[in-house]
């Protein structure tokens, strides 16, 4: 049994700090549980020694409670929490929720106290939610163990959507909106400070929980990337749709900004990448999250593909939906031949296209709407999802009754394909249809957006790679403070670099150039000059030996003049590369998620349009190809406007090797920039590289970022 | 009085083709009018000669109706429509709605018949809606003159939002959704085939109509751009918010694709530009349209600026709203000093920032929420709009009553600033607040999106230029089939071009080059070779006279070999330009909206990211500067990453002059591409140009596109 099970299914519950005032933090949960008719044992505990609290026999201490207690709610002021937890440990309580605030979120003393609470729980084998938690709900067990004032105005009903949020207020907003829409919930939990139980572990629980068929989650920050990844993957493996929100798009801290790649990352892009890799759909708003979750709950499935068919009685609405769909990456294939023939016979005046505009003729054909849908779903039908725009028929239930039954039959006959009705309808009509697995939306654009989100999730899950290996590699890495050292290391890791040479005299520079063939490039080499062009430290297109010797002298004198403090290793001589497409590849060492591979094209698209993509390391060459495809500018590599196709395979290989290198040395790296990495018609090559190492001694555990 | 007034306020109405069957097209409007209790005279007309139809005295022909008839609904089959309209003309009817379909939308014969209907109306001075119209509504007059089955399930109530749509089905969807949300409507009209009355004219009417304070509109295609522009501007001048949808993003027809500019236009970008110039907000979904319209109806105003303040009881929701707001171009300035001080005193534990997170402390302060809002609105407050996230308090009306009254007082004390409450609430609470001008939203993201749309509309209206002159210029234009001719014309129009020369011998080429100074560029000149590089027709960086002579011979022999049929005018010699930023400027001759100026940067941003912007011609240099600013890549012109600032003033001047040139020659032009137009540190210059002329004789009226 999952260790969080007693959180939701306790047979006995005590509230330490229970209050007779039903408006106080210690009074509200008791009131909600009594009002709802929770069937388990309920023990109010208050050291005041009152004999009765809110009509229930009360106890002065937990120890006085007869028999075992599964679940304890602690709602006493900060100074009493530690003692309360010790009481729980002595009573062999299984799970504790701490509602009290004023711990790690408040100050250092609070953080210290919170750490002591964790120790007490660990030693006693108890699980703890909070501190600073708002509570949890299990409507099927009438267990409303929260002090949220939301319960003053509404009571969530049982359903199949489970919800885990860090912020209780955010969770209340989400389940409040769900409840007002008539959407039921299996479990709801707010994790607060996450000293022990975090959102990831709740997702893990919900993935196991038989009553939960769809999962909603919301994070403000994640401390344990590996645990989150594993939980998301578990939900995907369990076939449970998962819609997640990540609130706050603050930039990553200074530690991560050691490289250009790091500064491009921002943690938002990293969360996007991790969610996508783990088959979760990130929603931009609470409403979008609920739309997708409810759609999945009603249909019980994700669409098998991104192909949709649209039947409509309004040309305009059909076009609106088609435009929305293609904006969201959905596809509208033509009708199958058999369908087109059947429709031509059924409604001769309508054009058998997709969207299929029935014209007003459909109303003059008995059972017209249903027969159109039947035809659109004939064998050979390409649609993963079928939409029917039915205007306002659901507002006239008696006129709609026959069609309603036929919609339910069609759904039953095509269990593999979500059927989505877009119409205005009375609540009763909607409920009957949804109970039979037929989704109903009022707004056409929201219907399309919800299906697009679900279909995207299905696609992500189909393409999901098996687990990302923990990136704890700590293979020793020699220093790489200069471009030459960095390239040598990357070359050794299998990333193509040029045959270049660091020279310490004008003569040796000319000799090196002679061996490579002209023209060549000369660059100053110094760990103290990371940005060579700023001191005029790069000279290109040198045609002969005398130009090379002159370049050597120019660079050395410029360095002496413009960076007098810099220790100079010499001048790098390398073959001049022409042509090809400049790309940027890099590694961002994320403090939560470990090494992330970055890819973008050279030029300004990266900065102006944020046209970059990230993926967790390590990456196979095949997955690197998907990373390349995720960047819009990659079109320039693939035969742009009749131009040539560049060697994306060489690029993918390099990305894969770079990712493996990053994993091997995860503990020592701060980040890597390879800019430019030039992709040629055949092959690809690194022209400049910067490896940034961690300043502090290697830190074996991922750092927290808050 | 507006000529459309009798459409909505008839004192007497006849229905030609009235039916006893309340489910038929001729029966439904009669039923709806009777059921609703329309107070005017109602005359069913049916040539069957029935004495009574649906309980009302009926007439065999319109002529038999005693007394005048203002408004006639025609619902007879196609063959009877013309005669019915002649009856109306004889009866001196003011307005006619034709519900019958099967005209221009069906076939050529239908189009011809429709043209005859228009003639009858014009001659009789009657106004006509349709044919193929679904009807119109004026809820305040209980006038439901439609055959839409939407009225079977709902009846729109009076309100201040007027709605004009081309498609009746689209309109039904929109007013149906509005009605289910409790949103009232002043007028609703569907224009169908728009043989006479179009959406633009309805907007014009709604701009005058005293009951209408907010306008919603939806178009599928516009035939008269000038009329639409004028109507949108009139709504803006009347201070009535206008939210519009344009359905269908098909590309413009072949006529417009004569130039690269034309192919980039697509009519979607053109509609975007026109709507924005005329101060209308384009909505992407029906829900967004209703959200913004309802917000404006409730608050009775547009926000004065894009600065918002957010009060929140949930840190997470505050961050979500702040992120949404900045995505949509809104700004969150810090609290005024006075506000921050007051809040520090009121809630010492909360940080006086924006969003202002009250923390749970606010609940322990009497009247806390209202006092926080008071403090945020102290003198010096920078906020154009104030949001308050109040969770679910509106679901407990008695607990909320005191705060509710305070919210209404605060709104009254700050009539210049919309106050938006984001909370779950009972319908009664919402209605009381909204009646007092306080907006209420359940979903935080939708609240922010609605305010952002309204604030954007206000900004567009503040920046609106005075009317666009009708672009009917037909000043004669000499031929411009070659680059040289095109540049000569543009140069004469004040657009900077290089001092270049078309030469017809190697010697004259060398002489010309000598006069310009080296290096120079040589290009083949032929009206038959529009794409010179494809035949190797351009040679650059020619350093001296012998290179120029050789280039002349090379180009002539390449042309002879690779384009043997081409008539060659000679070789163009021009100074070689280095440096600067390449831009693309052009003119798209839109068949509906006339000449539109296009701007984008060279490189791939135009194609990959559609990073271009359009504006109606003519354009002052100041408005050209806004056009430049609307393109994201323009950052490269303005000191990108510490680089130099280029001469955007010279660019703006060129755009303005090009726009005036296009207006002067609107009748003859098909389009203009200037690519590249190089912007230097000082000045700018056209390096290549293509002027495309209309093939057919100049057409004085804008062509239709469908």
TrEMBL record, chains A, B:
One Pfam family here: ATP-grasp_5
SMART domains: CoA_binding
SUPFAM superfamilies attached to this UniProt entry: Glutathione synthetase ATP-binding domain-like, NAD(P)-binding Rossmann-fold domains, Succinyl-CoA synthetase domains
Domain of life: Bacteria
Domain annotation ATP-grasp: ranges: 487-523
Record keywords: ATP-binding, Nucleotide-binding
PROSITE patterns listed in its UniProt record: ATP_GRASP
Coiled coil residues, start to end: none
PANTHER family: BLL6376 PROTEIN, COA BINDING DOMAIN CONTAINING PROTEIN
Name of this chain's protein: Acyl-CoA synthetase (NDP forming)
